[in-house]
Amino acid sequence: MLESLRTWALPYGGDAFLYLTVLAAASYLALLRFKERLPTQRLRRFIRLAALVALPFSVLAMETGGGENLGIAVLALVWCVIIGITCKNEMSRRGE
Fold first, then answer.
1. Alpha helices in the chain (DSSP H)
2. Terminal CA-CA length for the chain
3. What whole-number distance in Å separates Cα of residue 62 and Cα of residue 68?
């Protein structure tokens, strides 16, 4: 099964794409689980941290591999947007 995933992910960045997908899914699930317990300041910090990680990571992916790492660049940007929207929704739910 792992070989079929590797074959599928090869045009999008290979193993790095799979590892980043697992990292993005795990971090999003952790955020969903703990967002009610996090203070608003930390949620704001997560929005900034997601942008600081995803934007340079996507630029590096495009610079180093060109078109073959396009999947990694898009995944990093989508991850940043989803984390930001989730944090923003939780802050607006609280009324802050």
1. 2-9, 15-34, 40-65, 70-94
2. 46
3. 8
Q: Select, from the ranges 10-24, 34-48, 52-66, the one with the highest average predicted confidence (pLDDT).
A: 34-48
Classify residue 76 as exposed, middle or buried by CB count within 10 Å of its CB (0-12, 13-18, 19+).
buried
**Residue with tokens 């989730």, as numbered in its chain:** 86
Nearest to 20 by CA among 85, 78, 86, 87: 78
Task: Give CA–CA dist 50/37, Å, rounded.
Answer: 19
CA distances from 4 to 14, 67, 78 (A): 11, 21, 24
**In the predicted model, is pLDDT for residue 5 greater than 90?**
no
